[in-house]
Amino acid sequence: MVEPPKVDEPRVEDKLFQNRYLVDAGRPHVKIRAHIEPSPELLALIKICPARCYELNAKGQVEVAPDGCMECGTCRVIAEPTGDIEWGYPRGGYGVLFKFG
Amino acid sequence: MIEEKFDAIVIGAGMAGNAAALTMAKRGMKVLQLERGEYPGSKNVQGAILYADMLEKIVPDFREEAPLERHIVEQRFWMMNDTSHVGLQYRSDDFNEERPNRYTIVRAQFDKWFSKEVQKAGALVLCETTAIELVQNPQGKVMGVRTDRKGGEVHADVVVLAEGVNGLLGTRAGLRERPAPENVALAVKEMHFLPRETIEARFNLNGDEGVVIEAAGTISKGMTGVGFIYTNKESISIGLGCLVSDLKATGQTPYGLLEAFKRHPSVARLIEGSEVKEYAAHLIPEGGYNAIPQLYGDGWVVVGDAAQLNNAVHREGSNLAMTSGRIAGEAIFQIKSRKEPMTADNLKLYRKMLDDSFVMKDLKKYKDMPALLHTSSKNFFLTYPELIAKAMQTYVRVDGVPKLDKEKATVKSFKSARSLTGLVGDAFRFARAWR
Ligand SMILES: Cc1cc2nc3c(=O)[nH]c(=O)nc-3n(C[C@H](O)[C@H](O)[C@H](O)COP(=O)(O)OP(=O)(O)OC[C@H]3O[C@@H](n4cnc5c(N)ncnc54)[C@H](O)[C@@H]3O)c2cc1C
Ligand code: SF4
């Protein structure tokens, strides 16, 4: 099980709130392979994703909601080789829009 | 999508792609450049320090037009423990020169400007267009790319892969491997806004002078990682990056580390009262020379971060990207001028020219550094910073303990934390990797 964030852990949602996104509704660019028991790689994504796109659901499986994704590629580097996720870029023009970068 | 065939297609409008496209377009070549972002720079993240020399070779009078923040007059290196830092500081008025050597920039703004130069030179730049895969003939020669636009195939004699660290096209086509977790760092960064007078007062600056700080130590919790604080005109860029393999192993969250860095007493006073306007994340290639993939083939070359051309030891990347892009453009132009085809054999010229440049020479110099820092990360990023900070405190605190006893205690603490052979070994390995 993944321990809940510590009290002083910042809320990533508040950070992402500063950013601009153009979400391509219904076309997620990151997908998770259906699983019963998550692999260690999938579990690692819950902590490492800087946008906290990965969460554990009530059944103990890892889910992804890539709306706040910053397209960094970290999850791809970890979990694409194991076949746990399918990773691509959003369609041209969609996704995160950095004003400063 | 577009019927006509181009001399070259450039994938990506970052530092490497813009340098390549500009170099070729200026020489009259028919260039198409594809960028997946809404505008060039909208997907790009950097610290960011711009090195003038490498840009000057591409846009000689860039200082007149480019959006520059501050020219850097002072560099600080901090070795941090949890409550203090030991710093090395270099400041020189020589850097207040007519043509400054380094500037801070804001990437989204800088890339927009750079791209305008590319368009002025005559290249066709299409934004909001993601290239999905390379089009290859049965012999494997790259003929063009497929995009996510309607009827999305476009053709050219050569494709310049300037697609950045993730390099999706090249890896999907099997031209190179996807980056390994131990060869990339994940960096997170925030933009903190403050009135410019506040920044100038806090960092001891006049006018457009700027300071940059690189920080290492317990902030990365024993992982290979560094933090940075760069001054812009009205904002401070603050961030921290750690190797992906280390983050995966420790389960530390990147934002948790950044938050702790921001709360460190040495840092908190610099950003106090600021308004945060953006949170960004990006990978940085850290594998160095040994991670450089095949750089050319039939109908293609790869430049910049996609080729792992990044000097992590010196925090240089954009200048290697620009230089490799420029050199690729020059090599392609030479081959075209001779009316020869874009075969692997001919494109080898790019590799040769790159080998002769500072890009490969610098990366070769540090080829053993990534492995050393990785295998000894606990010593370099936890044990030594703690020891040094403690030694400094012991040294400066006046408390009636005789100085000789203090020195003995310090030496003892170093030896007990890390055996004498360990210390000597680390120093030796470090010196060898540095050479
Ligand atoms: C936090 C951080 C701090 C850094 N600090 C510094 C610094 O201070 N100084 C320095 O010199 N370097 C620094 N670097 C490194 C520097 O940012 C990179 O080396 C440099 O940006 C690489 O340039 P590039 O053109 O190869 O890639 P990028 O700048 O990443 O550009 C790649 C471009 O390709 C586009 N693209 C990718 N795939 C596709 C596709 N399939 N279709 C269409 N378009 C595509 C992207 O949208 C992007 O615009 C830093 C990096 C980071 C992350
Ligand atoms: S690409 Fe980066 S931000 Fe997006 S889901 Fe993966 S790890 Fe998270």
From TrEMBL, chain A:
Keywords: Electron transport, Iron, Iron-sulfur, Metal-binding, Nitrogen fixation, Transport. Residues 60-90 form the 4Fe-4S ferredoxin-type domain. PANTHER family: FERREDOXIN-LIKE (PTHR43082), FERREDOXIN-LIKE PROTEIN YDIT (PTHR43082:SF3). To ferredoxins from P.putida and C.tartarivorum, ferredoxin I from A.vinelandii, ferredoxin II from D.desulfuricans. Pfam families: Fer4_ETF_QO. GO terms for molecular function: iron ion binding; iron-sulfur cluster binding. This is Ferredoxin-like protein. InterPro entries: 4Fe4S_Fe-S-bd, ETF-QO/FixX_C, Fd_FixX. It comes from Blastochloris tepida. The keyword Metal-binding applies. Could be a 3Fe-4S cluster-containing protein.
Automatic annotation (TrEMBL), chain B:
The keyword Oxidoreductase applies. One of its GO terms (molecular function) is oxidoreductase activity. Residues 7-165 form the MnmG N-terminal domain. InterPro entries: FAD/NAD-bd_sf, FixC-like, FixC-like_C, MnmG_N. It comes from the Bacteria. SUPFAM superfamilies: FAD-linked reductases, C-terminal domain, FAD/NAD(P)-binding domain. Keywords: FAD, Flavoprotein, Oxidoreductase. Belongs to the ETF-QO/FixC family. This is Protein FixC. It comes from Blastochloris tepida.
